[in-house]
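INTERNAL AUDIT FORM
Audit reference: QA-55
Scope: verify that the stored structure record matches its stored sequence.
Auditor: D.O.
Record contents follow.
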Amino acid sequence: MMTVKTLITFQDFLMFHLKSSLVRLIAFPLMILLFFIMKQYADDYSEKEIWLSASMWLVIMFLFVVIRSFFRLKFAFKSNKKIQEYISYNFTDEKIQMKGETFDEDFTWNSIYKVKENKDWFLIYQTAQTMNMVPKKFFTKDQILEFRDLIRKNNVKAKLRND
């Protein structure tokens, strides 16, 4: 049995979502900008006017998306009291036990939809859209290796790192 005690801060939560949403944060304003440029070009604006307007709107759209994302994430974090608790994970050959200050959950390995690992997190998906975020900073290096072995041993669909 391996035990890992975690606490997710708002900064952890924010950085996770910003890193995983970076493409959206950049792509959405750029797509809007592209349509804006095409419309202005079709309306026979000068190239200088187009680039000036486009630059201004790019900055406005980017700021809007970033600010909106920040407040949306802040609300999501503050409204989920469980994610703000100290959580103790017990990983065994048969199951995962999560114990927080206000909850106690067990689930077996075969009930896990998949596990994803990135540089900073293990994401344990119970369904395609519901996941437990487990920060790797609370694992020792040996525990990370042991956890990967548990995942493989239990034949859980997983995308794990090789470091």
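Auditor finding: record pair retrieved intact. Residues 10-79 form one domain.
Action required: none
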